[in-house]
Structure formats: C-alpha cells, structure tokens
Design goal:
This protein is of the alpha+beta class and 308 residues long. The chain has nine helices and 13 strands. Helix content is 29%, strand content 29%. A hairpin with a 2-residue loop joins strand 3 and strand 4. Helix 5 packs across helix 7 and helix 6 packs across helix 7.
Amino acid sequence: MPVTPRGFLAPARGLCYTWAVDALRTYAVVDLETTGLDPAAGDHICEIAIVRLRGGEVQEAFETLVNPQRSIPAEVQAMTKISSEMVRGAPAFAQIATQVVKLLANATPVAHNAAFDLSFLDAELRACGAPLLAGPVLDTLALARRCFPGKGHSLRELNKALRLGASAAHRARADVETTIALLQRCEQELARTGRASHEALLEIAGLVPVRAERGRAWLPLSLARALDAGGEVRMAYRARSGDITTRVVKPLRLEAAQNRVYLVAYCKLRGAERTFRTDRIIQAEPCAESKPGLAGRTPWPTSGGRTW
C-alpha cells in the first residue's frame, strides 16, 4: 500500500470545479492560520493548507498543523480551535518548506487577503533559507471587492452572502475550499462582463513582489507599475483600526524599517507625503483608466469595513 507523505491528503475523487477562465491553468490555493497578525512582531504560521487544481480538478491537497515554536494566544485558540497542545508535535515550518515551495511552484498561487499570507510565507521561507515565491499571486479579496462591491468581504461574509456552501470553520483547509468557491464565482461574474481572461484577473487582483533596500513587498500590479514609471493610482488601504479608506496616491519609493516595508507616496487625501504599510494595501488601480465591461458598477466601495 502506498504511503501518503505527512500532511498530504488524497485528492477528492470526482471533486471538480468549472472555470470560466483558462481551463488548463493550474492554481495553487493557499490559506494559513497564524499566532497573530504580524510576522515582524514574532508571529508565526500554526496551520497551512494548499490545494492544487488544474482544469478545475484537484490534483494535490496538503494540510498540516505547524509548530510555531511559541505559545498560541487565547484569542487565536478561541477563533481557530487550534491549541498550543495540538501543535506541540507538529513539524516546524522548516520541515515542510520544501513541500510548500513545490506545491506553489509552476502555478498561479491564490489566497484571500493575499498580502497577509504572503508576508508570513516570505518571513518563514526566508528564515529557513528556502526560495521565495516569484509571483504573480491572485488575491480573491481584491476580486471580490470588484465583483461584489456592496457586500462584506471577509471569507465568512462572502460565504454566507453568496451561498458558496463552504464550511464556516476558521481553519486552513476550510478557508481554502471557500477561496476556491469564491474564485469560481468571481470568474463567472467577470465572464458576464467579457473580462474573463487570466490577464484581466491579474490586472484586477494580481500581486507582484517588488524589492526594497532591505526586504521586499507584494504590491498590486498597477501600483508596482506606477512606482516604476510614475503616475497615480486609486488605492484601498486598511488602517490599524481595520477600517478601509480609499485615496488617490502618487507612489514615490519603498522604505524598509523594523522588518517591514513601507510605501512612501504623495496622498491627495491629505495633501502631503504619507507612509503606508505595504501589507495593508488592499487594492489599487490606475486613476485615469476606465475599466471596460464594468459600466454601471461601483468597483470601489466607499464605506469602511473590516476585511477579516
């Protein structure tokens, strides 16, 4: 009898999704549970799940608890039901790094609020000397904000509002399944506007790595272009409070400090230069460019809200 490597799950037989976009493209959908919100403050991954799909069919599925080598705060235990006792015998991230890199390679990685997951993956991969992701990465949070502007955009809110039928559990594998269902629904919505191509998805919700003097940041594609060539973008930014504001900025440079990367930009809302944490940038698009096929929609919600 073949032995399944630790953490690997047999692909679910018959489990298949119908894509409106490039049926032969491989996606690697990933979700993490973490001990907190900030890897620069010493938080670590405590659970990871990755599902690879090609042509809508599940090819590989990987799920494991991860020993964060620190205690899990009570509020995180209450939310995820993952206790310090549960992860005590789990592998450290360094022990699964090779598997994680392999599963995310030669595919388009997908995550919900991808900048958050990417900040943790970058930190963990860098700490153990593993190769960093090359990108681009597709963010279903940005896609959902474009396709369904009048709704809350956490996975749980979208699961309920769109009747995705996924589990409401706050665990990595459950959230991966919800993300897959959400990606499918967003692609179907964009197909009705005539924008259902892989390139269009990346224009709306693609993140690419940009190097800073020390470290790197994952930025929306249009923001990375503006930083390189000049120009203004309309940017959605999550404040420390969790509220999301929208503003027009002209990106100037990236700066690194205290293990974080910041965007320095001229902010028209404030009429002055402002500094923004790159992992809190939710979405960006060129100001002067009208997106075809979305007439009648309000792609940028004006009300504040929490993303998780």
